[in-house]
Amino acid sequence: MPRFSRENRKRSIPLAAFALVFVAGILAVLLFDYTLHATSTNAFCTSCHSMQITKQEYEASIHYANASGVSATCADCHIPEAFVPKMITKVIALKDIYHELAGTIDTPEKYEAHRWTMANRVWGQMISNDSRECRGCHNDERMVTSVQSELAVQSHERARNEGYTCVQCHKGVAHTLPEEPDEE
What we know:
9 helices; Multiheme cytochrome fold
């Protein structure tokens, strides 16, 4: 009797197909995860020519270098931790790649011409999600008010009472504030 009968071969084909699909699925998930992380690094975020402007601003900010030595990355401020908001952010970010490639923001002059619009888009997002990414590192309950200036303590208290979110007072903490365009 042959070792591999026709019946045994019929059973092994679905098993082999299942194993192949299973391994392919694992590889797809690993590739997806790797890509997600790779596109969230400072190196990737600042690899476009136009992002060299914001990279220099960020490297001169307290979010990059400070007394504690803790540094916030581009992803810490601009990419949510939760999966669905992260995916939405990644899809929306494709427009930045498009505008870089299309030449809309590929020079410092063009970038500056669009900075007000871009900044307001980010600020609007941060206001709508109650500065979710800021709160990933900054926690009102853990603030040591004894080391804050009296003005900062009063400002934080007033912001809490009036429902302000971080970015409404701290615009420009990591990047240069854009000049508001002249109204015509």
